[in-house]
Specification:
375 residues; alpha+beta
Amino acid sequence: MEKLYDSKDKRTLIMKRWLKLLDLYVLKKFLVTFFYGILIFAIIACVIDYSQKIDDFVENKAPLNAILFYFLNFIPHIIALLFPLFIFISTIFFTSRMAYKTEIIAMLAAGMSFRRFLRPYMVGAFLLCGGSFIANHYIVPLSNQAINDFHVDYIWSKKVGSDNNIHMRLDEKEYVYFGNFNFDKQEGRRFTKEIIEGNLLKEKIAAENIKYVDSTNSWWLYEVEIRNNNGLNETWELKDSMELHLAIKPKDLDDDERIKETMSTPVLKKFIETQKKRGRENVNFYWIEYHKRTAQPFAGLILTIMGASIGMQKIRGGSGLHIAIGIVASALYMFFFQFAQTFSTNLGTNPLLAVWIPNIIFGIICLILFYKRVK
């Protein structure tokens, strides 16, 4: 019992040493402002989204429980999307309010350094960014999946056909091609499968029509032409129909980039590796989503220090001017982020670098502001 008391006493002393009453006061303001701002914005976002989709709800007869479940998942989706902006604006807002009431002047006049002043900010930022990191990788994808399912059932028109001229690599030697594919009928036209070893085309199977059979997980080919090449010997054969087992299903022919947001990070990574093996050209879209899930929480740490550095200075114009600065800076962050993504997808820039460019730029600005405040 004495040892247990000693351990509890040590933990209490550590807490008192690292988080004093003043720190808890600042931390409480930080968290309350952040969650209050999120609540207000989430309600506004839900109202706007509802007003835009109300005609679809009525036309497609969406049940009330499905609509409520949709908006329940829409809230974490919008929070994850704008998390860096939420944390930045809330930090500037409550810090500028403290500066306007001369609370920060009193802290600094009592001998508190700027590094010490940032302690509760960093504690709050680590809590929020840690939660955002876990949510981005595992929780938000579940919400996005529910949103996507709702859109498929009640908002979007059902996709009937695939894009034309689908090329896909199944492994190092095997390649397939579909002229087009109808998802309703699960039928395609102008199908070919080729096996290439080095520069030699070993086998080519061409079919005018192809159909997927769910019961056997196989493909049936019609009006088939088979060519085999073994160097000097070449054979040619015609068949009315034949069964073929391929390592793909009809859903793999739907090149829908929106599914990247519905997969947890481990699933997304496996999906990217599969797409790379199949020779898909748009893999950078998925890599951007993969790296963004880590970059955004880290941006919250950078923007917290920036917000504290900007908001702590008492200036003419008060909180309104600080919030205006925060909104402009947030808009610039989103601009850099979207610009970097476009650069990666269209010009082939490394997706890891593209996603982290806004953090690098704002990180440099953050260091400049930090050292300016320290001095």
